[in-house]
Amino acid sequence: MISVVFLPEQIKKIFDSFFDPANPIYISILITAFIFGIIFFFYKYIINPITERFNKEKESLELKTAKLMALFAELDPDPVIRIDSNGSIVVTNDAAQKVFSSRSLIGENIAQILPMIDYKKNGAFVNTTKVFTKKINKRYYSVLYRSEPKLNIGQIYMRDITDLKTYEERLLESQVKLKELSEHLQELIEEERQKIASGLHDGIGQSLSLLRIKLLKMKEQNNINSQFQNYADLIESLKSIINELKEISYSLKPKTLEEMGLGIALKTLADKVSVETGIEAEVTAVGEKTRLNSKLEIYLYRIAQEALNNIIKHSKASRFGIQLVISNKYIRLIISDNGIGFDTENILTNKFKLGMGLINMRERVETFNGKFKIDSAPDKGTMLVAELPLTKKKL
After folding, report:
1. I need a labelling partner for 216 at 20 to 30 A (CA). Which of 25, 75, 86, 249 fits?
2. Cβ neighbour number for residue 336 with a 10 Å cutoff
3. Is the pLDDT of residue 333 over 70?
4. What backbone torsions phi and psi does residue 292 show, to the nearest 5 degrees?
5. What CATH fold (topology level) applies to the domain 76-160?
Protein backbone atom coordinates (compact mmCIF):
# COMPACT_ATOMS: atom_id res chain seq x y z
CA MET A 1 0.00 0.00 0.00
CA ILE A 2 1.40 3.37 -0.99
CA SER A 3 0.65 6.39 1.08
CA VAL A 4 1.07 9.89 -0.25
CA VAL A 5 2.04 12.69 2.06
CA PHE A 6 1.22 16.20 0.89
CA LEU A 7 3.29 19.12 2.19
CA PRO A 8 1.36 21.99 3.57
CA GLU A 9 1.04 24.80 1.11
CA GLN A 10 3.23 27.19 3.11
CA ILE A 11 6.18 24.79 3.37
CA LYS A 12 5.92 24.04 -0.35
CA LYS A 13 6.23 27.72 -1.18
CA ILE A 14 9.37 28.11 0.99
CA PHE A 15 10.95 25.06 -0.62
CA ASP A 16 10.20 26.31 -4.13
CA SER A 17 11.54 29.78 -3.39
CA PHE A 18 14.84 28.36 -2.01
CA PHE A 19 15.57 26.40 -5.17
CA ASP A 20 14.58 29.28 -7.36
CA PRO A 21 17.55 30.02 -9.75
CA ALA A 22 17.09 33.68 -8.97
CA ASN A 23 17.68 33.11 -5.22
CA PRO A 24 21.23 34.46 -4.27
CA ILE A 25 21.65 31.90 -1.45
CA TYR A 26 21.02 29.03 -3.85
CA ILE A 27 23.50 30.54 -6.33
CA SER A 28 26.17 30.95 -3.54
CA ILE A 29 25.78 27.32 -2.51
CA LEU A 30 26.18 26.15 -6.08
CA ILE A 31 29.30 28.29 -6.58
CA THR A 32 30.86 27.00 -3.30
CA ALA A 33 30.13 23.41 -4.23
CA PHE A 34 31.69 23.98 -7.66
CA ILE A 35 34.86 25.46 -6.13
CA PHE A 36 35.23 22.56 -3.67
CA GLY A 37 34.73 20.14 -6.52
CA ILE A 38 37.53 21.77 -8.51
CA ILE A 39 39.88 21.71 -5.46
CA PHE A 40 39.10 18.04 -4.79
CA PHE A 41 39.70 17.13 -8.41
CA PHE A 42 42.97 19.13 -8.56
CA TYR A 43 44.32 17.58 -5.34
CA LYS A 44 43.29 13.98 -6.18
CA TYR A 45 44.36 13.85 -9.81
CA ILE A 46 47.25 16.36 -9.90
CA ILE A 47 48.80 17.17 -6.48
CA ASN A 48 48.52 13.73 -4.89
CA PRO A 49 50.10 11.82 -7.83
CA ILE A 50 53.00 14.32 -7.95
CA THR A 51 53.60 13.93 -4.18
CA GLU A 52 53.50 10.14 -4.36
CA ARG A 53 55.91 10.12 -7.30
CA PHE A 54 58.29 12.47 -5.45
CA ASN A 55 58.27 10.28 -2.31
CA LYS A 56 58.90 7.16 -4.37
CA GLU A 57 61.79 8.81 -6.20
CA LYS A 58 63.22 10.03 -2.90
CA GLU A 59 63.03 6.56 -1.34
CA SER A 60 64.56 5.07 -4.48
CA LEU A 61 67.42 7.58 -4.40
CA GLU A 62 68.03 6.95 -0.70
CA LEU A 63 68.04 3.22 -1.34
CA LYS A 64 70.49 3.56 -4.22
CA THR A 65 72.71 5.82 -2.10
CA ALA A 66 72.69 3.34 0.78
CA LYS A 67 73.52 0.46 -1.56
CA LEU A 68 76.30 2.48 -3.14
CA MET A 69 77.73 3.33 0.30
CA ALA A 70 77.59 -0.34 1.25
CA LEU A 71 79.38 -1.28 -1.97
CA PHE A 72 82.13 1.28 -1.36
CA ALA A 73 82.44 0.04 2.21
CA GLU A 74 83.27 -3.45 0.97
CA LEU A 75 86.11 -2.01 -1.11
CA ASP A 76 87.48 -0.01 1.84
CA PRO A 77 91.07 -1.00 2.78
CA ASP A 78 90.15 -0.51 6.44
CA PRO A 79 88.15 -3.18 8.30
CA VAL A 80 84.41 -3.15 7.51
CA ILE A 81 81.68 -5.39 8.97
CA ARG A 82 78.01 -5.53 7.99
CA ILE A 83 75.24 -6.87 10.22
CA ASP A 84 71.56 -7.56 9.64
CA SER A 85 68.66 -6.33 11.77
CA ASN A 86 69.22 -9.21 14.21
CA GLY A 87 72.86 -8.29 14.79
CA SER A 88 74.24 -11.23 12.83
CA ILE A 89 77.35 -10.58 10.74
CA VAL A 90 76.54 -11.04 7.07
CA VAL A 91 79.51 -9.43 5.29
CA THR A 92 83.14 -8.68 6.18
CA ASN A 93 86.09 -7.58 4.08
CA ASP A 94 89.57 -9.09 4.22
CA ALA A 95 90.88 -6.36 6.51
CA ALA A 96 88.19 -7.15 9.11
CA GLN A 97 89.02 -10.86 8.98
CA LYS A 98 92.69 -10.07 9.69
CA VAL A 99 91.78 -7.93 12.71
CA PHE A 100 90.04 -10.91 14.33
CA SER A 101 92.84 -13.42 13.66
CA SER A 102 91.53 -14.34 10.21
CA ARG A 103 88.71 -16.45 11.69
CA SER A 104 85.38 -16.44 9.88
CA LEU A 105 82.99 -13.94 11.39
CA ILE A 106 79.99 -14.71 9.16
CA GLY A 107 77.00 -15.79 11.23
CA GLU A 108 78.37 -14.57 14.55
CA ASN A 109 76.42 -11.98 16.51
CA ILE A 110 78.10 -8.59 16.71
CA ALA A 111 77.69 -8.69 20.52
CA GLN A 112 80.31 -11.45 20.65
CA ILE A 113 83.10 -9.22 19.31
CA LEU A 114 81.82 -5.65 19.79
CA PRO A 115 79.30 -5.76 22.67
CA MET A 116 79.13 -1.96 22.95
CA ILE A 117 77.19 -1.64 19.67
CA ASP A 118 73.48 -1.04 20.32
CA TYR A 119 71.84 -1.98 17.04
CA LYS A 120 68.34 -2.16 18.55
CA LYS A 121 66.30 0.19 20.70
CA ASN A 122 63.16 -1.08 22.43
CA GLY A 123 63.45 -4.22 20.31
CA ALA A 124 63.46 -2.34 16.99
CA PHE A 125 66.29 -1.89 14.49
CA VAL A 126 66.74 1.89 14.43
CA ASN A 127 68.79 4.54 12.66
CA THR A 128 71.76 5.38 14.87
CA THR A 129 75.44 6.36 14.79
CA LYS A 130 78.05 5.60 17.44
CA VAL A 131 81.82 6.16 17.69
CA PHE A 132 84.13 4.52 20.24
CA THR A 133 87.66 3.13 20.71
CA LYS A 134 88.32 -0.59 21.10
CA LYS A 135 91.51 -2.54 21.81
CA ILE A 136 91.70 -5.77 19.81
CA ASN A 137 94.71 -8.10 19.82
CA LYS A 138 97.01 -5.40 21.25
CA ARG A 139 95.93 -2.89 18.60
CA TYR A 140 93.68 0.16 19.07
CA TYR A 141 90.84 0.87 16.65
CA SER A 142 88.47 3.77 16.21
CA VAL A 143 85.09 2.16 15.53
CA LEU A 144 82.18 3.88 13.76
CA TYR A 145 78.79 2.14 13.71
CA ARG A 146 76.10 3.44 11.38
CA SER A 147 72.77 1.70 10.71
CA GLU A 148 70.71 1.75 7.51
CA PRO A 149 67.13 0.78 8.50
CA LYS A 150 65.89 1.02 4.90
CA LEU A 151 68.29 -1.76 3.96
CA ASN A 152 67.94 -3.55 7.33
CA ILE A 153 71.71 -3.48 7.74
CA GLY A 154 74.29 -1.86 9.99
CA GLN A 155 77.77 -0.89 8.83
CA ILE A 156 80.83 -0.98 11.13
CA TYR A 157 83.91 0.95 9.98
CA MET A 158 87.21 0.45 11.82
CA ARG A 159 90.44 2.43 11.62
CA ASP A 160 93.73 1.42 13.21
CA ILE A 161 94.85 4.24 15.54
CA THR A 162 97.51 2.29 17.43
CA ASP A 163 100.31 4.67 16.42
CA LEU A 164 98.30 7.69 17.56
CA LYS A 165 97.34 5.98 20.82
CA THR A 166 100.94 4.95 21.45
CA TYR A 167 102.08 8.52 20.80
CA GLU A 168 99.50 9.86 23.27
CA GLU A 169 100.56 7.34 25.93
CA ARG A 170 104.23 8.16 25.44
CA LEU A 171 103.46 11.87 25.60
CA LEU A 172 101.62 11.33 28.88
CA GLU A 173 104.51 9.26 30.23
CA SER A 174 106.93 12.00 29.18
CA GLN A 175 104.86 14.61 30.99
CA VAL A 176 104.87 12.47 34.16
CA LYS A 177 108.63 11.91 33.91
CA LEU A 178 109.21 15.60 33.25
CA LYS A 179 107.20 16.47 36.34
CA GLU A 180 109.19 13.95 38.39
CA LEU A 181 112.45 15.34 36.99
CA SER A 182 111.41 18.89 37.83
CA GLU A 183 110.54 17.83 41.37
CA HIS A 184 113.88 16.03 41.70
CA LEU A 185 115.76 19.08 40.42
CA GLN A 186 113.95 21.34 42.89
CA GLU A 187 114.92 18.99 45.72
CA LEU A 188 118.55 18.91 44.55
CA ILE A 189 118.62 22.71 44.34
CA GLU A 190 117.18 22.98 47.84
CA GLU A 191 119.70 20.48 49.20
CA GLU A 192 122.56 22.37 47.55
CA ARG A 193 121.26 25.65 48.97
CA GLN A 194 121.26 24.18 52.46
CA LYS A 195 124.77 22.78 52.02
CA ILE A 196 126.06 26.15 50.78
CA ALA A 197 124.25 27.98 53.58
CA SER A 198 125.71 25.63 56.20
CA GLY A 199 129.16 25.96 54.65
CA LEU A 200 128.99 29.74 54.64
CA HIS A 201 127.69 29.94 58.18
CA ASP A 202 129.71 27.20 59.84
CA GLY A 203 132.89 27.53 57.81
CA ILE A 204 133.67 30.91 56.27
CA GLY A 205 131.45 32.84 58.67
CA GLN A 206 133.10 31.43 61.77
CA SER A 207 136.59 31.89 60.32
CA LEU A 208 135.86 35.54 59.60
CA SER A 209 134.42 36.03 63.08
CA LEU A 210 137.58 34.56 64.65
CA LEU A 211 139.72 36.80 62.44
CA ARG A 212 137.74 39.83 63.59
CA ILE A 213 138.28 38.87 67.26
CA LYS A 214 142.02 38.50 66.70
CA LEU A 215 142.20 41.91 65.03
CA LEU A 216 140.33 43.44 67.95
CA LYS A 217 142.89 41.96 70.36
CA MET A 218 145.78 43.19 68.20
CA LYS A 219 144.21 46.63 68.17
CA GLU A 220 144.06 46.66 71.96
CA GLN A 221 147.60 45.35 72.38
CA ASN A 222 149.17 47.70 69.79
CA ASN A 223 147.49 50.99 70.58
CA ILE A 224 149.52 52.97 68.10
CA ASN A 225 147.78 56.01 66.72
CA SER A 226 149.25 55.62 63.23
CA GLN A 227 147.79 52.11 62.85
CA PHE A 228 144.55 52.69 64.77
CA GLN A 229 142.54 53.83 61.73
CA ASN A 230 143.78 50.90 59.63
CA TYR A 231 142.68 48.45 62.34
CA ALA A 232 139.31 50.17 62.58
CA ASP A 233 138.74 50.09 58.81
CA LEU A 234 139.75 46.42 58.61
CA ILE A 235 137.44 45.48 61.47
CA GLU A 236 134.49 47.33 59.84
CA SER A 237 135.19 45.59 56.53
CA LEU A 238 135.16 42.21 58.24
CA LYS A 239 131.93 43.13 60.03
CA SER A 240 130.34 44.08 56.71
CA ILE A 241 131.49 40.82 55.09
CA ILE A 242 130.12 38.77 58.01
CA ASN A 243 126.74 40.53 57.77
CA GLU A 244 126.62 39.94 54.03
CA LEU A 245 127.40 36.25 54.54
CA LYS A 246 124.58 36.07 57.07
CA GLU A 247 122.20 37.59 54.54
CA ILE A 248 123.25 35.10 51.86
CA SER A 249 123.05 32.21 54.32
CA TYR A 250 119.57 33.31 55.43
CA SER A 251 118.26 33.59 51.89
CA LEU A 252 119.58 30.12 51.07
CA LYS A 253 118.37 28.50 54.29
CA PRO A 254 116.02 30.73 56.30
CA LYS A 255 116.62 29.92 59.95
CA THR A 256 113.31 31.48 61.00
CA LEU A 257 111.43 29.07 58.76
CA GLU A 258 113.21 26.09 60.25
CA GLU A 259 112.75 27.22 63.87
CA MET A 260 109.46 29.17 63.93
CA GLY A 261 107.42 27.92 60.97
CA LEU A 262 106.00 29.31 57.75
CA GLY A 263 103.77 32.09 59.13
CA ILE A 264 106.53 33.88 61.07
CA ALA A 265 109.05 33.29 58.26
CA LEU A 266 106.73 35.00 55.76
CA LYS A 267 106.24 37.91 58.16
CA THR A 268 110.03 38.27 58.55
CA LEU A 269 110.53 38.10 54.79
CA ALA A 270 107.84 40.72 54.12
CA ASP A 271 109.25 43.08 56.77
CA LYS A 272 112.74 42.77 55.29
CA VAL A 273 111.46 43.56 51.77
CA SER A 274 109.42 46.48 53.10
CA VAL A 275 112.40 47.98 54.93
CA GLU A 276 114.73 47.61 51.94
CA THR A 277 112.29 48.88 49.25
CA GLY A 278 109.86 51.17 51.08
CA ILE A 279 106.89 49.14 49.78
CA GLU A 280 104.18 48.83 52.41
CA ALA A 281 103.58 45.21 53.50
CA GLU A 282 100.71 43.40 55.20
CA VAL A 283 100.87 39.74 56.28
CA THR A 284 97.98 37.74 57.75
CA ALA A 285 97.84 34.09 58.79
CA VAL A 286 94.49 32.38 59.28
CA GLY A 287 93.69 28.85 60.40
CA GLU A 288 95.32 26.03 62.27
CA LYS A 289 98.53 26.74 64.17
CA THR A 290 100.40 23.68 63.03
CA ARG A 291 103.77 22.92 61.52
CA LEU A 292 103.66 21.65 57.96
CA ASN A 293 105.77 19.10 56.19
CA SER A 294 109.25 20.68 55.91
CA LYS A 295 109.35 20.24 52.13
CA LEU A 296 105.95 21.92 51.76
CA GLU A 297 107.04 24.80 54.01
CA ILE A 298 110.21 25.51 52.05
CA TYR A 299 108.34 25.29 48.72
CA LEU A 300 105.73 27.81 49.84
CA TYR A 301 108.46 30.06 51.22
CA ARG A 302 110.30 29.94 47.86
CA ILE A 303 107.06 30.79 46.06
CA ALA A 304 106.67 33.84 48.29
CA GLN A 305 110.31 34.80 47.72
CA GLU A 306 109.89 34.59 43.93
CA ALA A 307 106.61 36.51 44.00
CA LEU A 308 108.12 39.31 46.08
CA ASN A 309 111.14 39.48 43.73
CA ASN A 310 108.71 39.99 40.83
CA ILE A 311 106.88 42.69 42.77
CA ILE A 312 110.15 44.51 43.46
CA LYS A 313 111.41 44.23 39.87
CA HIS A 314 108.30 44.68 37.74
CA SER A 315 105.15 45.77 39.57
CA LYS A 316 105.91 49.40 40.54
CA ALA A 317 103.62 48.71 43.49
CA SER A 318 103.35 50.81 46.65
CA ARG A 319 101.74 48.03 48.68
CA PHE A 320 101.71 44.24 48.75
CA GLY A 321 100.03 41.65 50.91
CA ILE A 322 100.62 38.02 51.89
CA GLN A 323 97.79 35.89 53.20
CA LEU A 324 98.29 32.35 54.52
CA VAL A 325 95.17 30.24 55.09
CA ILE A 326 95.48 26.78 56.65
CA SER A 327 92.46 24.48 57.07
CA ASN A 328 92.26 20.80 57.90
CA LYS A 329 92.19 19.93 54.18
CA TYR A 330 94.20 22.52 52.27
CA ILE A 331 96.67 25.37 52.55
CA ARG A 332 96.29 28.53 50.47
CA LEU A 333 98.95 31.17 49.90
CA ILE A 334 97.76 34.46 48.36
CA ILE A 335 100.20 37.20 47.34
CA SER A 336 98.82 40.43 45.90
CA ASP A 337 100.02 43.91 44.98
CA ASN A 338 98.56 47.20 43.68
CA GLY A 339 101.07 47.53 40.84
CA ILE A 340 100.77 47.93 37.08
CA GLY A 341 99.70 44.31 36.47
CA PHE A 342 99.85 42.52 33.09
CA ASP A 343 97.69 40.74 30.52
CA THR A 344 97.26 37.20 31.90
CA GLU A 345 95.51 35.91 28.75
CA ASN A 346 98.61 36.39 26.62
CA ILE A 347 100.89 35.04 29.33
CA LEU A 348 98.95 31.95 30.39
CA THR A 349 98.11 30.75 26.88
CA ASN A 350 101.77 30.58 25.97
CA LYS A 351 104.05 28.92 28.52
CA PHE A 352 107.10 30.06 26.60
CA LYS A 353 106.19 33.63 27.55
CA LEU A 354 106.07 32.75 31.25
CA GLY A 355 109.06 34.03 33.15
CA MET A 356 111.24 31.48 34.88
CA GLY A 357 109.95 32.75 38.22
CA LEU A 358 106.32 32.00 37.35
CA ILE A 359 107.30 28.65 35.85
CA ASN A 360 109.15 27.70 39.04
CA MET A 361 106.20 28.74 41.18
CA ARG A 362 103.78 26.70 39.10
CA GLU A 363 106.04 23.64 39.11
CA ARG A 364 106.46 23.81 42.89
CA VAL A 365 102.67 23.91 43.34
CA GLU A 366 102.06 21.07 40.86
CA THR A 367 104.64 18.96 42.69
CA PHE A 368 102.12 18.76 45.55
CA ASN A 369 99.16 18.26 43.16
CA GLY A 370 98.02 21.80 43.91
CA LYS A 371 96.48 24.58 41.83
CA PHE A 372 98.28 27.75 40.78
CA LYS A 373 96.30 30.78 39.57
CA ILE A 374 97.26 34.25 38.38
CA ASP A 375 94.72 37.07 38.36
CA SER A 376 95.95 40.33 36.85
CA ALA A 377 95.13 43.02 34.32
CA PRO A 378 96.92 46.17 33.14
CA ASP A 379 96.77 48.85 35.88
CA LYS A 380 94.74 46.51 38.11
CA GLY A 381 97.49 44.91 40.18
CA THR A 382 98.31 41.20 40.44
CA MET A 383 97.20 38.36 42.68
CA LEU A 384 98.87 34.94 42.83
CA VAL A 385 97.06 32.04 44.49
CA ALA A 386 98.71 28.73 45.38
CA GLU A 387 96.34 26.13 46.82
CA LEU A 388 97.73 22.76 47.91
CA PRO A 389 96.41 19.73 49.80
CA LEU A 390 97.53 19.98 53.41
CA THR A 391 100.51 17.87 54.44
CA LYS A 392 101.35 18.19 58.12
CA LYS A 393 104.83 17.77 59.53
CA LYS A 394 105.98 14.17 59.76
CA LEU A 395 106.87 13.24 63.34
Report:
1. 249
2. 21
3. yes
4. -95, 170
5. Beta-Lactamase (3.30.450)
How much is the pLDDT for 385?
94
The CB-based long-range contact list for 321-325 (8 Å cut-off, 24+ gap) reads 321/281, 321/282, 321/283, 321/284, 322/266, 322/270, 322/281, 322/282, 322/283, 322/284, 323/283, 323/284, 323/285, 323/286, 324/262, 324/263, 324/266, 324/283, 324/284, 324/285, 324/286, 324/287, 325/286, 325/287
pLDDT at position 345 over 50: yes
- Phi then psi for residue 50, to 5 deg, are -65, -45
Query: Confidence class of residue 86 from pLDDT cuts 50, 70 and 90?
Result: confident
The CA distance from 243 to 239, in Å, is 6
- Distances, alpha carbon 36 to alpha carbons 27, 39, 46, in Å: 14, 5, 15
| Top CATH class, 254-395 | alpha beta
What are the extents of the domains in the chain?
A: 9-58, 76-160, 168-253, 254-395
Nearest-CA neighbor of 307 among 202, 248, 384, 230? 384
d(CA 305, CA 357): 10
Q: Count how many residues are written for the chain.
A: 395
Task: Give the confidence band of 320 by pLDDT, cuts at 50, 70, 90.
Answer: very high
